[in-house]
């Protein structure tokens, strides 16, 4: 299943989500290992999707 995720901050916000999932997973390793593994898988999936995005080019308009 595919999902569309819209983030106003772009890929940098998605990177923060990945980091948060990994930190959360680390805190649940002993108390909920299946949940921790699931969060790591979600983080990996998002990271893989980010890796497939084209490299951004920055063209700023002058005002």
The overall strand count is 0
The share of residues in helices is: 55-70%
Form type: elongated
Strand content: under 5%
Number of helices: 2
Describe the main β-sheet briefly.
Answer: none
The chain-level structural class is mainly alpha
End-to-end distance: 42 Å
Report the radius of gyration as a whole number of Å. Answer: 15 Å
Summarize model confidence as the mean pLDDT.
Answer: 88
Order of helices and strands: HH
Unreliable sequence segments = none
List keywords for this structure.
mainly alpha
Description:
It is elongated and about 45 Å long. It has 63 residues and is an all-alpha fold. The chain is built from two helices and no strands. The N and C termini lie far apart (42 Å). Helix 1 (11-27) packs antiparallel against helix 2 (33-52).
Furnish the topology, listing elements before pairings:
Layout: H1 11-27, H2 33-52
Helix pairs in contact: 1-2
Quick summary of this structure?
This protein has 63 residues and is an all-alpha fold.
């Amino acid at each position: 299943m595919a999902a569309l995720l819209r983030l106003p901050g772009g890929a940098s916000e998605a990177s923060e989500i990945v980091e948060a999932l990994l930190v959360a997973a680390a805190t649940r390793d002993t108390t909920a290992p299946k949940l921790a593994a699931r969060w790591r898988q979600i983080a990996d999936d998002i990271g893989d999707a980010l890796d497939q995005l084209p490299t951004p080019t920055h063209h700023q308009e002058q005002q």
